[in-house]
Amino acid sequence: MFSYREPLPGDWDTKLDSFQKLLVLRCLRADSLVQGLQDFVSAQLGQRFIEPQTSDLSVVFTESSPSTPLIFVLSPGTDPAADLYKFADVMQFSKKMNAISLGQGQGPWAETLMHAAMKRGQWVFFQNCHLAPSWMPALERLIENIDPVKVHKDFRLWLTSLPSNKFPVSILQNGSKMTIEPPKGIKANLQKTYLRLTNDFISSSTKATHLKSLLLSLCLFHGIALERRKFGPLGFNIPYEFTDGDLNICISQLKMFLDEYQDVPYKVLTYTAGEINYGGRVTDDWDRRCLLSVLEDFYCPAVLIDNYVYSSSGVYRQIDTNLDIKGYLAYIRGLPINDTPDIFGLHDNANISFAQNETFALLGAVLRLQPRAASAGGKSLEEKVEEIVAGIVEKIPQPFSVQEVMEKYPVRYEESMNTVLIQEVIRYNKLLEVISKSLRDIVKALKGLVVMSSELELMANSLFNNMVPDMWKAKAYPSLKPLASWVSDLLQRIDFLQRWIHYGIPPVFWISGFFFPQAFLTGTLQNYARRSGTSIDTIGFDFEVIGKSVSEITEKPNTGCYIQGLFLEGARWDNQTGQLTDSRPKELYTEMALIWLIPKPNRKPPTSGVYICPIYKTLTRAGTLSTTGHSTNYVISVELPTDHIQRHWIKRGVALICALDY
Question: 472 near 392, Cβ under 8 Å?
Fold first, then answer.
């Protein structure tokens, strides 16, 4: 077992200082770098710099005055209002506090409240300032005009706002700013919820024992729905902002339905929570499938069994229902601070993906803060960019001759692949033209022959940081690769098309090489429809995984096509058994075997024994909704044989990916 605190071998341990050791850690185990950095900061600056600070409103309040506003900077999943009302109670100001949620038309009303409060010595609480950008200049004026002599000494102005560029800078500079971080981890989420609950609420139910069991289940589900986000696309394609409000309405409904129905109405509970309260926020169909699969484990008859365990480790389980809220809180305090991936239904490798993403996000932020000035002896940005440009220029080929391709592969009724090829060639040509022109322009700009426009300056910075320039991305296919890998991937894609043009339709298609894979899939269905005289909208794909390697296949199949170049994330393909199986430790992505797509009319998909696995273009999985009604990142879903229930793979976030990020 590797530990990031492991001493380095030989005399490297004494040769390198603590910062240089971090560089070694970054190269060998990027997933452990954040922990290494925590140790470094703790040793250099002190432990308190890495521990979350608790928010104590009384401390902030004692330092404030009537003319300095107190500003809560909102972060997703938190609501400081409850904390403020509690604090107002303690200070005996709950009767003397006026709150208003800002929005359209609320400005004059807020102004009146503020003037009255300044005279009477009350508190005013303006929520969601970001929703009233047009009224912000008026608020700025009001605060500037507060006369410290005339204003009542008890007057205080509390504000909440999301980070917004419309928020007046002068208010920020003169005010006291606080932010409340949402609780991190399932333990902290459970604790937060159970501290709000009362024994009276539970004992007033006619089915108190059922309520206790299902309530723990529901709170665990809420924690998991929130915490799955940290695993990125393995958790959910889109990170949804589930709130305490979603949980509170589910708790009220749970109690109401238990009291109203004789038996526990699992169907009603699952529908209201999964499709409405939580599901109402979910915009991606694959995420809804995942959310409902997770919920199935928590709203089911099994959870009413004594000592029911939710995870294979047995840490998260049902406890004695005779205990009161205090007993439940004692159990929650004994839970681990860091969640284990098994409670989410994820593989242990998910933690590595999460840790790596956290590291790269941190390093990306550090890189953007780096000064651009060159030190003596080092190469300047201009010299470095010139070198990179020269390296790319000699690799980038000339655009394809569309005329020649059209002569060799004319549009033919019985061969749709010719149309697919021509469309791909046109798309790649547009990209190659943009790359060639911008590279020529930047060389001239660096030499001072033309003006360095803001676009070219951005491009130079991107090239310097080994990132793909935005003007290329705008004309390119989705990709997460850094610049060097992106260029070699582009050359492979062009080589794939050149071989197709030169040698004819390939026996195996490299699906990742297409600019627009959906057109290729439609072309395959169209070929079958035209040959068999069947309507294209009645045809679907059947799937067969082929155990052969690409080099063994020399002829294309009679119907359909072979595709290759996919990677599995969250699981691996076992060629021996011919089915999906769990990933090996530390193997985040594995190559998928060849898949044979076989068009079949009026096909009925199998109901069991398969996992319906989506194919995405990149690892982010989420895209924007395009005119075709699909996400720009989603390609198609394939059925992969498995001996597990489908829910097992859904919770693991298993998907096929066309291209990785390196």
Answer: no
